[in-house]
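Crash report, auto-generated. Payload:
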Amino acid sequence: MSAKTPSKLEKIMAAGHLGVTSECGPPRGSDPDTIREKAELLRGYVDAVNVTDNQTSVVRTSSLATCIHLKLMGIEPVLQMVTRDRNRIALQSDILGAASFDIFNLLCLSGDHQSFGDNPQGQNVHDLDSMQLVWTARKMRDEGKFLGGADIKRPPQMFVGAAANPFADPFEIRVPRLAKKIEAGAEFIQTQCIYNLDKFELWVKQAQDRGLTEKTYIMAGVTPFKSAGMAKYMKNRVPGMDVPDDVVKRMSDTPKEKQAEEGVNICIETIQRLKELDGVKGFHIMAIEWEEMVPDIVKRAGLYPRPEID
Amino acid sequence: MIVADKKPVEEIIEYVKDHSKILVLGCNECVTVCEAGGKKEVGILASTLRMYFANQGRDAAVDERTLERQCDHEYLEEIRDIADQYDAIVSIACGVGIQFTAEKYLSIPVYPGVNTCFLGVTEQRGLWTERCQACGNCILAYTGGICPVSRCAKRILNGPCGGSSKGTCEISKDLDCAWQLIIDRLKAIDRLDLYEKMFPIKDWSTDRAGGPRKVVREDVQI
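Recovered output after restart:
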């Protein structure tokens, strides 16, 4: 696959390197320094930084505004957009707004249901679904057209991605669904956090058998546990998360003061094992409110220094 | 059918407390089946209101009537002769019937006695569940006869999302994942090939998005 956009992330993976991304959750307030401080922790250790879009349906500074802060700092953002809060007019408009700041990466998601957030009484929109948003972004880029058919002056130049959760049910359609996302135009895929490596490897193998790993860059999602409590919470409370019992046990059997360190060890072992898989083209390190751990994880996993690409 | 649920009686009392001649008006159709607005419920609500007024020492009359339907001129006309006797009507038909009654009897306040909930089925007595959102552009042919618009919490046309777990939706373990049902059904009718194709962007102009809707059938108009 050769790069089609100015995205650094795309160029790095197109050159055959493993891509590395992390994420920066916007603040529950308008202080730009908190954004800059978080992003600064990641500078140089990742190729691009995902900016979440009102994750878990809790109101935060907008993803687009936060991406602009990152861009102005010289850090490459991945704009996350959910279809929960905006209709096709607003989605296209925000894609153009991002393009006007030369934001080159877009991740299309449906978003958590609003009942999880701080406005459970609100409406949701879902005019498009995530797959249709991927298709829309590709149409805007490749054909230079709006959904309404009119030409776009200076179309967006975005590397367009989607998420995949190999651990959600029913498992048998997880690969067909990936195929549909690729068909819609997803050029990279960031996966749900991986703790069940056997199941993930089976999913990658099935994707490979359908030739899908040659059509999209699969970036394996990892999240270090800070504590045994977090492992249990993710296992029991987070929808679509698969944390095997032995992983929870490993965290629980570790003395409290060593649990964070053990969580990072598990994360690094995961990356090291998955680096050997042909179908995996990069890693998405989601250190939730623990951005300061990312440099260490990247270094110890053998992903540092990051390649330089023009 | 249209499924409705009873409003809290305190709310209805708040509407009618200053009136003295009240008609509780039921409907013999959907709301009778879902036990929210039929003859039986008219009787119960009217008795409750009478008790309230008696306790307040108020001299108010509460009468009962149940029409065949409140969504047709013909049946609504049946109360034409008596409507003027009342200074309030509490309709416990669905929102359609309540509005049509209000349109027909312009000078009488008409209050809702139920909350109209959805288009659904009786799964068992006392359990009604949603099946249709009347989007005006039916896609059931492609989804195994199971509607993602009404039954997926995110109305995802290319599901299931990442929150589908053991057949249930991420928002509640008591809610089936519509896309799990769709896939099970496509398998049963040997049409999983339908799943492989991306469902295109939907035209929502036939949904409420396009404004209040009309069906005009000149072929049946008199």
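Post-recovery validation: Chain B has two domains: 2-118, 133-210.
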